[in-house]
Design brief:
mainly alpha; 118 residues
Length: 118
């Protein structure tokens, strides 16, 4: 089930995401692969609708993966501006540090994202 959810989050397959996440007892913050959960994968791939859905089901926007990367930082690294904006609106902490000690602002490569992180 974990690999199916990873694929669905990466590809924006909402029907599959819902089918898995809405099963009784499913933990939306559960580690799926490499210390990452569905929100991390959706953020990496810019899947805004999946991000919204996972947050609505209780996904922790500030939960880091095993390397200390949050969904917000994943979106910053991948220059997914709309996802950065959404995650910030949903309470993501922009004042954390990347694994190398850089601020999230310093990790941003685009002016649009930098302006969101000010």
């Amino acid at each position: 089930m974990g690999e199916q959810l990873v694929w669905a989050c990466k590809n924006g397959d909402m029907d599959q995401v819902k089918a898995i996440v809405e099963k009784p007892g499913f933990d939306v913050n559960k580690e799926l692969l490499g210390g990452r959960n569905g929100l991390h994968f959706a953020a990496d791939y810019g899947q805004k609708d999946v991000i919204k859905f996972l947050i609505s089901k209780g996904a922790d926007v500030n939960r880091p993966d095993r390397y200390g990367i949050t969904a917000l930082l994943a979106s910053i690294f991948e220059s997914k501006t709309e996802c950065v904006k959404l995650l910030l609106e949903k309470g993501a902490n922009k004042n954390l540090k990347a694994p190398d000690g850089s601020s999230y602002y310093e990790c941003a490569e685009t002016d649009d994202i930098k302006s969101l992180l000010k």
